[in-house]
Amino acid sequence: MSSDCFHLFVYGTLRPAFGGPMALWLSRSARLVGPAMIAGRLYRVADYPGLVPGPTGQVHGDLFALADAAAVLAMLDDYEECAAHHPHPQEYRREAVIVPTAAGPARAWVYIYNHDVAGLPLIADGDFLPCAGDGGR
Fold first, then answer.
1. Which of 55, 67, 70, 72 has the fewest CB atoms below 10 angstroms from its CB?
2. What are the structural domains of the chain?
């Protein structure tokens, strides 16, 4: 993974409006740039979502600027259980994507769902927050 990517796109339990412990930690550890969207589909995995990028659909989220990307990403890789010490196959993988913003495109890390989505409910509007109240982690 390249080290020249200093943004992070979040779409689920890490969004500031979710209000969970890791969302609060991220809000203190990085600077919120604002709302953003990327192309793809969002699925309800359990009490959290999984993003599958693709040409159809839009996923709502938030973009953060990372001052200390290595430290923040190390903590989040552990939270998302995709750090090297977690067993394979891992549920998520971290990839760099291009996120459109009002100031132009930004290169950002995002956690991609890494398993088959067959049988998982699609979050049709691409926004996890409205359905988070019914069991979000």
1. 55
2. 7-129 (3.10.490.10)
